[in-house]
Give the backbone structure.
Amino acid sequence: MKLWQYIARRLLLLLPVIIGVTLITFTISFVIPADPARAWAGQKAPPSTVEKIREEYHLNDPVYVQYYYYITGVFTGNWGYSHSEKRPVAQCLADYFPATFELTLWAMGIAIPTGIYLGVVSAVKRNKIPDHLSRIFALSGVSMPIFWLGLLLILLFYTYLGWFPASGRGIAPAHTYTGLYILDSILSLDWHAFVDDLWHIILPSITLSYATLAVITRMTRSSMLEVLRLDYIKTAKAKGLSDKVVIYRHALRNALIPTLTVSGLAFAGLLGGAVLTETIFAWPGMGRYAYQAISTLDYPAIMGVTLLMAIIFVIANLIVDIMYAYLDPRIKLGE
Amino acid sequence: MAEIEATRSFAKTHESQIKEFKYILHLIRKSPLTLAGLILLIFIFLVAVFAPWIAPYHPTYVGGQQYWPYDASKMLDPPSWQHLFGTDDMGHDIFSMVVYGTREALYIGFIVVIVAMLIGVLLGAYSGYIGGWFDEVMMRICDMFFAFPGLILAMAITAALGPGLQNVMYALMVVWWPAYTRIVRGQVLSVKENQYIEAARAVGISRFKIIWKHVIPNSLPPILVQATMDLGNVILTAAGLAFLGLGAAAYTADWGVMVSQGRSWLISGYWWWSTFPGLAIFITVLAFNLFGDGIRDILDPRLRR
């Protein structure tokens, strides 16, 4: 099977997964004790208005009809009305998505290279001091409450040292092209905004990256250990190649494949972590939107964020699978 | 005399298991990180059990709600000999609350993991053993759950059910059962191929009995390792939900709630309220991870070199 056929097949398989996801979110919205019609109409609205809304939103129909309307809504961009923001959920999500995307991109950008480097060092210096240090560092990463880490960083770098700001995304760049502040500030040559935005993203992206970094370090270490025992590495060493070439050219290439898979899975942690990180750093993304929605009982907003994050996660894993197939020709595509 | 005889015959019939167990103990002793995890875990359990003797202050319960003794004159006192971890904005003793919080964290962890494991063992074992459409449907349902980032799904469910400790636990069970179902199923698929299962079937033992007496006991070790690591993860996720305002009520001995409440004071330099409960979460989860990690390596013969 060719790569493009594989991609097409995987894209097609995406559909049932997304339908499965909507089944779960729909079921959860069904559990919600509050009467949605009453919530939309407001406490003071007369019963006739509530009844009208009930009719209009098909709340009197049987469950499967409601699900039909729900799923057509999902696919046509009608994700409900966010009463805390007084506008459609889809609009809010579109506004908040770039901030979350920018933050997770930076966190990934920190986590992947650092994690791979630490993993390699750990494997090469197995059972020596650098290995012990990096293992403890990695285990701490998967054990640390992300919100607590964020608070400690704020305490140190904002309250005591005053080096970095503790909240928000910084100055909006002069022009908006992508919604990613730092990229936009470069594109619009807004130097002032660039520095400010960079300063703002440092603490939150470090906070968010730590857990992922830890996962990548651990995976790289164990897959490097596997690879380093193989015969072809011995051959490469016997040929007289330098350690650097053997480790980075020969071993790491093959060791990276499991790391790639794990980074796809770690993306879930990143999205979940984004909710906590954005809450701490008042980062105006989807996570903070969800947090505020919880305190105002804005259920359509919560369900919207949940659904969108699940879809993003599914797509991220699809991308990882495709890269996987591309990188490792041994893998029989489509099986 | 009969007792000695009984012990002797126990030692004889279980000789190989006892040997294996001794070998595992030996390996734990030789792995400093695993040993550290084990010692930390014992310490944490002791703190939970002896909380009333360790903590200088104690809560009272009115209608299921926890109330702590407070002293308005000691608002936000920094750590001192009288209040080891300082006080919060009502003058509650943070050290006592952190100590009592150990009980709650372990309670959440164990209940959620045990329930998720039971559901997983039950569904996974049948799914793997019976196969066919039941297996297919079960696996597709698991896939649906795996499509969500765990914390996000738990957040949505808790928000729908309403904030509170009970609902956090229900949500975490919903999030965690598919992982066990899948692991157990995989285990069962490999165990099922063994000859002793075939032998059991040949002598006419019922399917139910084969699953419970032969398949499940033989697939337990990797499940228990997973459970050890998950205890930490569940505690961590529960703390995250509490931090988002979905967990226990304010001013209760819940680590996540305490970090969340102390957060707004931390920026102004009152660091102790959030820091100590957060440290407690960190150490507890770390202990479970250290121990689980080590045990996994030890139980996996491939990694014993």
Observations:
- Strands of chain A lie at 81-82, 87-88.
- Residues 3-89 of chain A form one domain.
- The first helix of chain A runs from residue 3 to 31.
- Chain A is about 75% helix and 0% strand.
